[in-house]
């Protein structure tokens, strides 16, 4: 069954394209899973953008697997392939269910898809595991490098290819951030996983940490992570380091703050009888910086839903040159960027 | 009977009359509309009266004909007599009742009858140790402080807008038959409706709480009693009651949209309550964290008349623990509990890091939990879960003794009915 398709009303005004300008309206829904998506990850490739995400479950159904979407303009999307089809995965495989926080990266001409799964019959609700697959083309087919067991148990793994050629993985587990190096060709870890951020390193700044994302600009390394605070406040914070190995220093001010009163409570689609709406996703943790139109930096995350469906949001983000990160116009429904 | 007034909407759905010894009196029926689109009911009507002996309750449905009627809790075995748009039934002792004219799990327009025992030893309004709220509307603000030794009395017909607070005090009381409303506070931004911090020997009795912005009753300290209170909530986080250490929750009614009874500190007892669990939370919640060891909770003779869970969230279960702290939670006894209308997960007893607790990588466990004589009338559509996080955070020594689900006794672990993680649990017994 194909669940992609647009039955959603336009979230905001659609404007005619203007040469040299990238304009869009948030949230972006056209062609994406109408039940919503979380933990979006976008990669530019061969003139298109590709997106993978944690798909919201169709009520009363299992997830189909790992869905890949393509867009020529970041605004209009369509499903192009199912990188893993749950129906073809043996019932006793460790990677049969959930399909959380996936990413796709191009490394040395190959494409690596990472995903987090578990088998809910065998390990219901336990920590998901990290899996890795490789392909010659971004749209597949992919070969699972971890068919027998995950590389480790954890969630929200972010892959970061450092300028020196090392491949770093960062993930969260039990509210702390861990890291290891990856040998992508062998599909194995090169170093032992170790905790890099937790109470011992952050002291009073420590909160339950979610969804690390790492990137580099001009020799400076940036990590974004999120925390939940009492009163249903989510603060997206960033840390900086002079090396991908750390040590990481947390910026005093959060990059973004989400509070419940801002949450979108609009029900965007009718649900089958017996289901009033998608399961509440409550909080926004996962953020990614990617290269968008004009070669500029953009931030991608899922919308500030609390009770309704989460959808793709894109906003400009800037590195201020002094180790700071700035989102100039956060949470605006309309954006317009002049392209260089 | 207590006076109603135009300050709160009368129900257009129902008329309620009480007959005793040939004398009939109408009991004012209040109406609340659902406040969030996730709520399963569109309205809730309720009425209350005090009585002794035996009474006949006559309910007239004002909007449509009656094709069906049942009175819950099922365990009270109340027979109804239908005649046209009217139904009658007998009560011979106090209780809280749901009078339902619709079949199924989702009831659009429930009516609740609060048949109270007599309000005895009513304090005198001119007693300096008493703060008296008579019939009518009162605005008390968001932090009405109650000092030691003080009694706050809400007479029947009193409609008090605001929230009560006390700290480092002893022997304080809130009682009566009036209503405490949190309607003026933004949702989930204000304090709990009744907050007692580090208080000893508090009593909350007889009143009805409506429109809480967040938790209804949150007491810390010790030796508290919550008795015959009626709690309503519509939004998420409208938890019911917690009572600190050595507390008692009894003869109370909860229609709330988060955890109803919180077994958080030590030696909480809960008995003879009636719970309508809305779409979020659990009727019985062990807690989400805690660094200290906690133990000694006992819940008995409770009717969970409806559970409206429908999402695969960990906090959607009748009996729920999502323990993400370093303490050990132990010695819970649940017995003689009946779940009348539910089709979702029954048990979620797990240890797991979560954003509300302070996770300790080395410690944090649940042990010695007994479920005895529990009857779940429905058929769960989602499996229960007994699971620790890892070997340092196990769930151990859980006994299911005569737990009946859908007419069948739980006999062992079964991934379709009750998933028990073999790696992180020990001594899970079914008998």
Describe this entry's structure for a reader.
The complex is a heterodimer of chains A (340) and B (431). Chain A has 340 residues and is an all-beta fold. Chain A has 1 helix and 25 strands. In chain A, the strands form 7 sheets. In chain A, strands 10, 11, 12, 13 and 14 form a 5-stranded antiparallel sheet that branches. In chain A, strands 15, 16, 17, 18 and 19 form a 5-stranded antiparallel sheet that branches. Chain A is globular, with a radius of gyration of 19 Å. The termini of chain A are far apart. In chain A, 42% of the residues are buried. Chain B has 431 residues and is mainly beta. Chain B is built from no helices and 38 strands. Chain B has strands spanning 14-20, 23-27, 30-33, 43-50, 55-61, 70-72, 81-83, 86-91, 95-100, 111-116, 130-133, 136-145, 151-154, 158-167, 170-176, 179-181, 194-205, 208-210, 217-222, 225-227, 230-232, 241-245, 248-250, 253-256, 261-262, 269-271, 274-277, 284-285, 294-307, 319-323, 328-339, 347-351, 365-376, 384-387, 395-405, 408-409, 418-420, 425-430. In chain B, the strands form 4 sheets. Chain B has an 11-stranded parallel barrel. Chain B has a 6-stranded parallel sheet with strand order 25-28-30-32-34-37, with no helix packed on it. The radius of gyration of chain B is 21 Å and the shape is globular. The termini of chain B are far apart. The interface between A and B is medium-sized, with 25 and 28 residues.
């Amino acid at each position: 069954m194909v669940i992609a398709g647009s039955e959603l009303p336009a979230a905001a005004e659609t404007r005619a394209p203007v040469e040299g300008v990238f304009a869009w309206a948030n949230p972006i829904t056209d062609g994406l899973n109408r039940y919503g998506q979380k933990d979006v990850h976008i990669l530019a490739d061969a003139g298109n953008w590709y997106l993978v995400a944690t798909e919201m479950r169709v009520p009363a159904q299992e997830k189909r697997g790992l869905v890949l979407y393509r867009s020529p303009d970041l605004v209009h999307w369509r499903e192009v392939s199912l990188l893993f089809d749950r129906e073809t995965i043996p019932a006793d495989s460790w990677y049969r269910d959930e399909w959380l926080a996936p990413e796709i990266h191009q490394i040395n001409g190959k494409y690596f898809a990472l995903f987090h799964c578990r088998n809910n019959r065998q390990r219901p609700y336990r920590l998901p595991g990290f899996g890795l697959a490789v392909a010659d083309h971004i749209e597949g087919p992919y070969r699972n490098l971890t068919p027998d067991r995950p590389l480790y148990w954890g969630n929200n793994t972010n892959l970061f290819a450092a300028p020196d050629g090392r491949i770093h993985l960062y993930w969260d587990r039990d509210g702390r951030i861990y890291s290891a190096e990856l040998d992508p060709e062998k599909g194995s870890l090169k170093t032992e996983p170790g905790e890099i951020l937790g109470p011992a390193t952050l002291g009073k700044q420590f909160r339950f940490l979610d969804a690390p994302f790492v990137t580099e600009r001009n020799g400076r390394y940036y990590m974004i992570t999120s925390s939940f605070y009492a009163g249903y406040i989510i603060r997206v914070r960033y840390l900086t380091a002079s090396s991908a190995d750390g040590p990481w220093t947390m910026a005093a001010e959060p990059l973004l703050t989400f509070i419940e009163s801002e949450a979108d409570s609009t029900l965007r689609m009718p649900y089958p009888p017996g289901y009033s709406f998608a399961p509440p996703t409550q909080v926004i943790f996962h953020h990614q910086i990617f290269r968008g139109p004009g070669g500029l930096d953009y931030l991608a995350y899922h919308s500030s839903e609390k009770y309704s469906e989460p959808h793709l949001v894109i906003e400009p983000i800037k590195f201020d040159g002094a180790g700071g990160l700035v989102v100039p116009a956060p949470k605006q429904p309309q954006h317009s960027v002049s392209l260089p | 009977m207590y006076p109603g007034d135009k300050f709160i909407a009368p129900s257009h759905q129902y008329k309620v009359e009480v007959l005793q010894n040939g004398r009939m009196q109408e009991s004012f029926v209040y109406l609340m509309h659902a406040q969030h689109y996730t709520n399963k009911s569109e309205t809730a009507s309720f009425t209350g009266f005090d009585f002794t002996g035996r009474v006949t309750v006559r309910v007239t449905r004002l909007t449509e004909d009656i094709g069906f009627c049942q009175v819950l809790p099922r365990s009270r075995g109340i027979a109804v007599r239908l005649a046209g748009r009217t139904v009658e039934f007998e009560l011979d002792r106090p209780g809280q009742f749901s009078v339902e004219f619709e079949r199924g799990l989702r009831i659009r327009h429930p009516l609740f009858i609060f048949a109270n025992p007599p309000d005895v030893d009513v304090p005198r309004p001119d007693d300096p140790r008493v703060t008296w709220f008579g019939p009518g509307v009162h605005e008390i603000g968001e932090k009405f402080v109650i000092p030691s030794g003080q009694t706050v009395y809400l007479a029947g017909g009193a409609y008090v807008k605001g929230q009560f607070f006390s700290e480092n005090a002893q022997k304080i009381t809130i009682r009566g038959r009036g209503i405490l409303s949190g309607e003026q506070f933004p949702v989930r931004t204000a304090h709990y409706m009744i907050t007692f911090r580090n208080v000893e020997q508090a009593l909350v009795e007889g009143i009805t709480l409506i429109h809480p912005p967040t938790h209804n009753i949150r007491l810390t300290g010790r030796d508290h009693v919550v008795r015959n209170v009626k709690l309503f909530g519509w939004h998420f986080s409208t938890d019911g009651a917690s009572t600190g250490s050595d507390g008692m929750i009894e003869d109370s009614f909860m229609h709330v949209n988060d955890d109803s009874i919180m077994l958080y500190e030590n030696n909480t007892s809960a008995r003879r309550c009636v719970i309508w669990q809305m779409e979020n939370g659990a009727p019985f919640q062990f807690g989400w964290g805690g660094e200290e060891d906690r133990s000694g909770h006992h819940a008995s003779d409770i009717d969970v008349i409806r559970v409206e869970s429908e999402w695969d969230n960990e906090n959607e279960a009748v009996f729920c623990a999502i323990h993400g702290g370093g303490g050990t939670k132990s010695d819970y006894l649940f017995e003689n509990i009946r779940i009348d209308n539910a089709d979702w997960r029954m048990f979620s007893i797990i240890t797991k890091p979560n954003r509300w607790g302070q996770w300790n990588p080395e410690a944090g466990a649940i042990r010695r939990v007994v479920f005895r004589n529990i009857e779940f009338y429905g058929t769960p559509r989602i499996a229960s879960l007994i699971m620790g996080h890892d070997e340092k955070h196990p769930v151990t020594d859980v006994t299911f003794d005569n737990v009946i689900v859908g007419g069948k006794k739980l006999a062992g672990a079964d991934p379709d009915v009750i998933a028990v993680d073999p790696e992180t649990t020990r001594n899970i017994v079914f008998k």
